[in-house]
Write a structure and sequence with these properties.
Blueprint (H helix, E strand, L loop, with lengths): L1 E6 L5 E7 L1 H4 L5 H15 L58 H17 L3 E4 L8 H10 L16 E4 L5 H6 L7 E3 L6 H5 L3 E5 H12 L4
Parallel strand pairs: 1-3, 3-6, 4-5, 4-6
Antiparallel strand pairs: 1-2
Helix pairs in contact: 2-3
């Protein structure tokens, strides 16, 4: 099993912990990572885009001009799609983009994402993340853990950390809200998309135990 140092929020090592190989040393399935990210983003889509059909456009129902004798093509309605302000033919209507993803595939993908970060040495374990509830103190703790929370350049490219701890740590929840680049997440809400879009994963020991327990029994 891989062994990591356990640090406190000042960056000092206070012990060590072994990572479960079935969770943090699993085979990395890149295609499943892509599938699950696509599934998560599809669930986030609002699907509220809407256009009006011919019968929904406001306007007179009077015939535009008489059927014959004008030399023009016959027209029956000013609401036809080829008139300005007319209805849409194939425009979008409100819909849900959500679809089902097998639970087994989601668990394997989550283990793949965790294993990817473990193989990159991008997982930091802290004994606990105690803070006074201020963004400044949370940012200082990340700096002590060698994770700068400020963008590196004008494009905003810089290191980002995903802090995982229980939602009973309300001071951390409040202090992490306004971080420039990093984010707090509860262990039960850990997901592939957020792991992949943050460079470093910061886990408390309690969160690590909860994640390991939840994913250790996942079938291959």
């Amino acid at each position: 099993m891989a062994k990591l140092d356990v640090k406190n929020i000042t960056g000092k090592s206070v012990g060590s912990v072994e990572l479960d190989e079935t969770v943090f040393g699993a085979e990395i399935h890149e295609h499943l990572l892509w599938e699950v990210v696509k599934w998560q983003l599809a669930k986030r889509r609002s699907g509220t885009a809407s256009t009006k059909r011919l019968g929904e456009v406001r306007g007179s129902s009077k015939k535009v001009w008489k059927q014959k004798g004008t030399g023009q093509a016959r027209q029956g309605s000013r609401q036809s799609p080829h008139f300005v302000g007319g209805g849409s033919v194939f425009g979008p209507k409100p819909r849900s983009y959500e679809y089902n993803m097998p639970r087994k595939a989601k668990k394997i993908a989550l283990r793949s994402a965790l294993s990817l970060r473990a193989s990159e040495n991008k997982i930091i374990v802290v004994d606990n993340f105690s803070t006074d509830g201020k963004t400044k103190s949370v940012a200082a703790a990340l700096t002590a853990l060698q994770i700068a929370d400020q963008p590196r350049n004008r494009q905003g490219v810089g290191p980002k950390a995903l802090i995982v701890d229980g939602n009973d740590n309300q001071k951390l929840v409040r202090g992490a809200k306004n971080l420039a680049r990093s984010q707090w997440l509860a262990p039960e809400g850990l997901n592939v998309y957020d792991i992949l879009r943050h460079e470093t994963l910061v886990l408390t020991q309690a969160a690590l135990d909860q994640i390991t327990t939840a994913l250790k029994g996942a079938e291959e």
